[in-house]
Structure prediction request, 286 residues.
Amino acid sequence: MGLEAGLYVVSTPIGNLRDVTLRALDVLASVDRVYAEDTRVTIRLLNAYGIKARLSAYHEHSDEAVRTEILAALGRGERVALASDAGTPLISDPGYKLVRAAIAAGHRVIPIPGPSAALAALAAAGLPTDQFLFAGFAPAKAAARARFIETLADVDATLVLYETGPRLADTLAALAAGLGDRPAAIARELTKLYEEVRRDRLAGLAQAYANVEPPKGEIVIVIGPPEARAEASETAIDAALREVLRSGASVKDAAAAVARALGAPRQAVYARALAVRRSDAPGPDE
Ligand code: SAM
Prediction:
C-alpha cells in the first residue's frame, strides 16, 4: 500500500476485535512504525490479523523524548501510526500533544476513523443526538466533581461521560443531585460478551447502583438534555426555596439548586430567594 508520509491516528476496537476497519488494518500493516499506548494490547489486534509491525510505546506519561523520536521519524519521511488500547486515540487517551507537535512541525496528520465508546453509547442510549457534549471522566474527588457537574448543568445538549465501575455509584448520585432527575443510560461493556444498556432516569440509576457490588467492566454514562419543564409558579419556587434554606444552604446555593430542579431562570429564583430569606427572617422582637 503506497502510503504518504505522516502521522496516522488509527482507531481500534473497543472490545470486539472484528470492529476494525479494512483501512485501519491496511495502515497498520504498511506504516514504518506503530506507536501504541500499551504494546501488549495492540499486539493482540495485530496478531489476530497476521500483521507484523515495528511497535513502540506512546502512553500518557511519554515524555518529550518519545515525541522527539516520532517527530524525527516523520521528518525523515516515515509513515507513523498511533493507536490506543481501545477506540479512538486522543479521546480520553494519549495523543493530543503529539498531534499538536506534528502539526506545528508541518507534518500531515491523517485520521483513520473507527470505533469510539462515546459514539457507540450515544447510538444505543435512545437519547437526543442532535447536540451532545462529551465531558470525559468526572473528577474523582467529591468537591471537584460537584464543581464539574455544575458547569454542565445548563448545557442544552445530551451529555456523554466515561466512568469506571468502582466510581459509578458516587458519580451517578452526584449527577442526580447536580443535574436533576433527567433520563439517562448506562452503557457497559459495549461490543463485548456482557454488553448491557440500562435506561432509566438519573435518580433510578443512582439508586440501582447504590449499595451493591460495583459493576464490572467499562462504562459510558449518557444523560439527556435538561427537559422543557412547565413554568414553575412563584408559590412552588418559594416553597422549594424555603425547604432548601431550612437545611442551612446559602441564598446563592439554594437559588442554584431550585433553579436547576424546577428548570426556572436562575436570576429570577435568586431574587425570590432573597425575598424569602427577608420575609422569613426573625423580626427584632423575636
Ligand atoms: N479512546 C477510547 C474511546 O475512543 O472510546 C476511550 C478510552 S478511555 C481511557 C476508557 C474509557 O472508555 C472507559 O473507562 C469507558 O468509560 C470507555 N469505554 C471504553 N471501551 C468501552 C466499552 N467497550 N464499553 C463501554 N465503555 C467503554
